[in-house]
């Protein structure tokens, strides 16, 4: 007697289905109820007055982490030129994830080398204004510039040595990036 492969598969499949229908693996579970849960311990409930709500759009500074008390941001020359000793920059030296400090508030800024507009894409992570609007970045000579979605300058920074950049936002706030 000769069987075809498709016939053998069909017979095997029918045998599996038939044996699966006659299982009693789950029949013992139908009669069992789960054990009752123990109630959570009850404690003392107290009432206190809540503080008044903040004005719309206001933020509570205590919600944001702050820069360490010993952190300092180098001041830039008033004419916007590079500080003495600032190193020439390359995109590869800037690419990565940075800890940003803006007026005492900290956040993260991702600076991948993904082409975007006239520079590279940027991604602020839980940053305060105006740094929350960073969309791109680029380097030219000694300067790292952070841009908004319209290509407007949000901040200019210069290398302070090692893995640190210091500068100012377009509205004059001190900003630093460190790794």
UniProtKB/TrEMBL annotation:
Domain spans labelled Alkaline proteinase inhibitor/ Outer membrane lipoprotein Omp19: 89-179
Main location group: membrane
Subcellular location: Cell outer membrane
Compositional bias per record (Polar residues), positions renumbered to this chain: 60-73
Region (Disordered): 24-85
Membrane topology according to the record: Lipid-anchor
GO molecular function: peptidase inhibitor activity
Residue stretches of biased makeup (Low complexity): 32-44, 74-85
Keyword annotations of the record: Cell outer membrane, Lipoprotein, Membrane, Metalloenzyme inhibitor, Metalloprotease inhibitor, Palmitate, Protease inhibitor, Signal
Keyword Membrane: yes
Signal peptide location: 1-20
Pfam family for this entry, one: Inh
InterPro entries, per the entry: Inh/Omp19, OM_lipoprot_Omp19_bac, Protease_inh_B-barrel_dom
The name this protein goes by in its record: AprI/Inh family metalloprotease inhibitor
Species whose genome carries this gene: Mesorhizobium newzealandense
């Amino acid at each position: 007697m000769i069987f075809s492969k498709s016939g053998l598969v069909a017979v095997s499949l029918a045998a599996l289905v038939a044996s699966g229908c006659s299982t009693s693996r789950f029949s013992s579970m139908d009669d069992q109820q789960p054990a009752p849960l123990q109630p959570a311990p009850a404690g003392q409930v107290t009432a206190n007055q809540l503080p008044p709500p903040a004005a719309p759009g206001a933020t509570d500074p205590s919600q944001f982490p702050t820069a360490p008390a010993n952190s300092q941001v180098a001041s830039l020359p008033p004419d916007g030129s590079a500080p003495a000793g600032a190193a020439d920059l390359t995109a590869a030296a800037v690419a990565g994830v940075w800890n940003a400090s803006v007026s005492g508030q900290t956040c993260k800024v991702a600076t991948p080398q993904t082409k975007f507009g006239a520079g590279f894409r940027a991604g602020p992570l839980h940053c305060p204004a105006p740094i929350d609007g960073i969309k791109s970045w680029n380097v030219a000579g000694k300067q790292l510039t952070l841009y908004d979605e319209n290509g407007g300058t949000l901040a200019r920074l210069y290398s302070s040595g090692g893995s640190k950049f210091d500068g100012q936002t377009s509205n004059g706030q001190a900003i630093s990036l460190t790794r």
